[in-house]
Specification:
Elements: H1 3-30, H2 36-168, H3 171-191
Helix pairs in contact: 1-2
């Protein structure tokens, strides 16, 4: 309600109150019982004043109240619509999130398989390299063992030959060998 409407209502109430007060005071002076006519006139004036004031200010009040309620309804509908749109967007994200999780799991599974294959290939390559290195080392060790065995066999042969020669060698045999050796040297020298 506007401020002027409130002032009018207060003035009308004061006027009606003054009428009632005047009528009451007048009725007390005349007699102990109030006059019925004055009571009805007072009631009609009061009802008319209140009716006029209510007719003047209540439609505006109800109109503004109706407009406020309608505005609140429109705002509530817009808010509901926005909330539904947000809920739909969230639901779309959630459903897309499920698809993203599945895609991520599939990618992770694929990458794990690829990594497993790569590790298996690398492991096979390393095992082959270690095997090749071991074979090379075994072969080298076998060659070294054969050389050592050949050297040992040669030493044993030389030792055995030396023992046999010593067993057969005496002074006459030694001097014959030296003579034969010298003779062979002279013959060689003569040929050259």
């Amino acid at each position: 309600m506007k401020r002027s409407g409130v002032k009018r209502m207060v003035l009308a109430l004061l006027f009606c109150g003054a009428l009632v007060f005047a009528q009451e005071s007048g009725a007390k002076k005349e007699s102990a019982e109030p006059n019925q006519t004055w009571l009805w006139i007072n009631f009609i004036v009061l009802a008319a004043g209140l009716g006029y004031l209510m007719g003047k200010s209540l439609p505006r009040f109800f109109k503004s109240r109706t407009q406020g309620i309608q505005k609140d309804i429109v705002d509530a509908q817009q808010t509901r619509k926005l909330a539904e749109e947000r809920a739909a967007a969230i639901e779309r994200r959630v459903s897309a999130l499920g698809a993203e999780v599945e895609a991520f799991q599939a990618r992770a599974h694929s990458e794990m398989e690829q990594e497993g294959a790569r590790i298996a290939t690398e492991t096979s390559r390393l095992i082959a390299k270690v095997r090749e290195q071991a074979e090379f080392e075994i072969e080298a060790a076998a060659k070294a063992a054969r050389r050592e065995l050949g050297a040992y066999a040669a030493k044993l042969s030389v030792d055995l030959a030396e023992q046999r020669i010593r067993a057969r060698l005496n002074e006459d045999t030694a001097s014959g060998l030296v003579t034969d050796f010298v003779h062979d040297l002279e013959t060689e020298e003569f040929k050259n």
